Amino acid sequence: MTLNKSSVEGLGEINQDLTKLELNSLHNRKVTIYGVSDDHITKTIQESNTFYEWFLLTALQPFVSAGGLVVDVGANIGNHSIYFAASKGAKVVAFEPQPQIARILQRNIEVNFLDNLVEIRRCALGEARAVAHGQLSKGNFGATKMILGEGDIQVSTLDDENFNDRVRILKVDAEGMDLAVLRGGESLIERDRPVISCEVSSASDLSELTKWVGEVGYTFAGKYNATPTFLLLPFRSATEIAAYNRYVSTSMVNSNLMARDQAYRINVLASRVSALEERIKQLENR
Question: What pLDDT is stored for residue 282 in this prediction?
């Protein structure tokens, strides 16, 4: 459903038309998400009828339980924040610096009655405190870049932010600033050892990330999405290494089961098609 920019209660001044999306991807509840109508994320949710970056979300899901803390850096309209809060009952601290998108994020949290689980902080994160302005990407608000040096957007660091609990999942999607965000949170990462997801858009960035991952005692555990998004797991202590090995083993078993299930479904469909073709031939020969 496409809505006029002035027709959504509680959004204040929004300069774009919005689309109302209703998802039934979660077994326990229906979810409503408002998104900018011509935006890439909105279109993808609408076409797939499920949450954006679904496979990444389901890969992260086992690492948090009810009441566990997720930090969502670059929350955008709230796709990931809503998923963790609604599906797992997780607490979420969502960082979104773009004023108009942050208002849509706020409305999405309210309309899904998740105010008690999701806290929105309207600032950007980086390697050090600074100010910045946003460089918008037409047709994809999720690709808006923060330009440091001048502007009215405050840039904080993960280490300067206060969190009331151990961070279980740290999701970073900061459009080229992911590694800077991680470097600005090394004390938090050393203390809490969260599962991390972060995005890399170039070979040089991947090289830098690989070096950093080794320095902080993490390892790569998965790759997702059109823009490479990596799942990073702690990999220093014996306990962390054992947990990583369990995760890899479980993932392999699940992949094998999924492949077997898909093969079974294909065989069933093939049998049905064959039976239907035979029935058509019988009718034609009458």
Answer: 84
